[in-house]
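re the bet — no i am not wrong, look at it urself. input seq straight from the record:
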Amino acid sequence: MLNYQWAIKTKLKINFMMKSKLFFTLIMFFAAIACYSQSNEPIKFKIKNTSILPKKLTLISYTPGDNGNGTQGYWMWPRATKELTFKVGTRLFLANQKDVSTVMSGGSIEKGKPYLIVKKEDTDKTFTF
């Protein structure tokens, strides 16, 4: 009878320990997901052409956690604004034709000075070029 009671107590302890470990693991998993999703939330901001002439805007972006880059080009009328959305930490470069050629041939301009590094505080701001 004594061995049977010991087996029951041991089994209950093991079940409790397994449930505790599972609960702790789930809490840590959801905490990691919450931290990751908050740090990568998209930020909306605007770019404005302050010139009296139309200009071509070419942006090359490097987003943390993504491989490679993104390239976007826009023709902007005088005094026009364009709303953009990027994740926090994205480095944006105003590119000329030489930069575009470098990127399109597989190179990187990532080592240069970025025009803008997207921060959470940039929400709804307007930047000029």
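see?? The chain is about 35% helix and 30% strand. told u. also The two ends are 84 Å apart (CA to CA). so pay up
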